[in-house]
Amino acid sequence: MTHSTAVRIVDSADVSPDAVIGDGSSIWHLAQVREQAVLGRGCIVGRGAYVGTGVVMGDNCKVQNYALVYEPARLGDGVFIGPAVVLTNDTYPRAINPDGSLKSAHDWEPVGVTIETGASIGARATCVAPVTIGAWATVAAGAVVVKDVPAFALVAGVPAKRLGWVGKAGVPLARDAADEAWVCPATGDRYIESEGQLTEESA
Asked: Measured at the alpha carbon of residue 88, what is the angle toward residues 82 and 89, in degrees to the nearest 5?
């Protein structure tokens, strides 16, 4: 295990010696971090959370209590994974093969969820791999994501559908009646919508 003295791993956590944990990260009670997982600097893995083999997380990510981050998930910097979130990794899950034999690790091909910088996944949401959650998007609590989510999108429901847009502060954006731009009430940042995508307005 590669880490500095600034890393905090409580005694009841199960962290593989082959995991790489970035400076200033904390692994809390009963969490499990598997072999070859790579966590960036300043990450928090909450009580009972699971980080699968080879999962890669950027800096300053938060994986809340009892979240399940199955390999081969990829998380950018500043990603928030709420309590009891599930990131799946099997498109056609079965316990057994057609002949009735128990499936082994060699009988299926893992597929991953990709979550880009700053995005948030609300409590008990499920992201069904393979999907990509765009930067700064927000997935509402309890949502089931089965298709890619654009950057800055706010999605909710089963299956998840876009309800609106959010800015980097996570607050829903409001439409500026004067010029049709989207504006963040918290920061004043402005965004332009075009063909179902949102981008920051250039200065």
From this structure: 145
Alpha-carbon distance of 116 to 23, in angstroms, equals 21
List the structure tokens of 66: 């009892």
CB neighbours (10 Å) of residue 202?
A: 6
Backbone angles phi, psi at 115, to 5 degrees: -125, 120
pLDDT tops 60 at residue 2 = no
Distance CA 81, CA 149 (A): 15
Q: Are 167 and 187 in contact (CB under 8 A)?
A: yes
What is the C-alpha separation between 77 and 90, in angstroms, rounded?
24
Contact of 200 with 179, CB cutoff 8 Å: no
The whole-number pLDDT of residue 55 equals 98
Using pLDDT thresholds of 50, 70 and 90, give the confidence band for residue 4.
Answer: very low
Note whether 162 and 150 are within 8 A (CB): yes
- Indicate if the pLDDT at residue 92 is higher than 80: yes
pLDDT at 5 (0 to 100) = 56
Q: What is the dihedral of CA 167, 170, 172, 174, to 10 degrees?
A: -40
What is the pLDDT of the chain when averaged over all its residues?
95
For residue 20, give every residue at least 6 positions away whose Cβ sits within 8 Å of its Cβ, in sequence order, or none. Answer: 1, 2, 3, 37, 38, 39
